[in-house]
Structures are given as structure tokens and as C-alpha cells.
Amino acid sequence: MAALPVESAGRTRYVRRQDVRYVEAHGDYVRLHTGSGVHLVRMPISRLEEYWSEAGFVRTHRGFLVSLGAVRELRSDSAGGLLAHTDLGDVPVSRRHARQLRERLLHAAQRGELHAEGTTS
Question: Which residues does the chain have with pLDDT short of 50?
């Protein structure tokens, strides 16, 4: 699924996976955060994780996925938690998912795949 249909006001548009920086669960829906805005799609985050994990999306928290290419840095928050910083905002990283995220970021960096998304076109 390289693109997802997004329906709004009687129109169907397609949001490309490469334009999505991170995904936020919202009940039975997911919010796709892109440079052009936030798009709501009826799909569980677990299904989207299955579809997009091979394309560089990683679960960071029970309710969040992030594109590895969108992560600019990891930083601590005021409560001692971890945040994945993207150009569209910070994504929470739970202790449970922190190790996997760090490993995937390291492998992506070694392959030269980081910061490819969201750069000037």
C-alpha cells in the first residue's frame, strides 16, 4: 500500500506513504501526519504497521508509528521519557519500543537512508 485513500467532503484523495512523517491512532482510525496536513483514515494502526513496516515505519508507542526517514533526533522530555523529533512535531517513544527504534535508526543511518524524506524537492 504505497498510498491510502482519504475521503473528505465527498472527495477521495490519495496520501502517499512517502509523504507521511508519522501516524497516530485515533480509535478505529489513524491520523496520517504529512507536510500538507493531517488526514484521517479508517484503519487500525496495527494493520497499517503490518503494511508499512518493511517501508521504514516503526512502532514507537502503543498509538504511534514513525517513518525512520522523518526522525531528525531522539530527545528526552521533561518527565524523562523519550521523543522522536520530526519536522512536524515530537512522537512519544515508550520504554518498550525504544530499543527497537534505536536499532532501526542505526541500521538506516548505516545504509544512508536517514533524512531522505521531507527534504527539498
Answer: 116-121
68 forms bridges with which residues in the sheet?
A: none
pLDDT score, position 115 = 61
Report how far apart, in Å, the C-alpha atoms of 85 and of each of 12, 43, 66, 69, 74 are: 30, 25, 10, 11, 6
Per 3-state DSSP, what percentage of the chain is helix, strand, and coil (rounded to 5)?
25, 45, 30
Q: Return d(Cα 115, Cα 121) in angstroms, integer.
A: 13
pTM equals: 0.88
Choose among 21, 51, 25: nearest CA to 34: 21
The domain 3-110 is placed in CATH, from the list 2.40.50.1020, 1.20.1440.60, 3.10.290.10, 3.10.580.10, at 2.40.50.1020
Number of other residues whose CB lies within 10 A of the CB of residue 34: 18
Cell of 121: 524537492
Secondary structure (3-state) at 110: helix
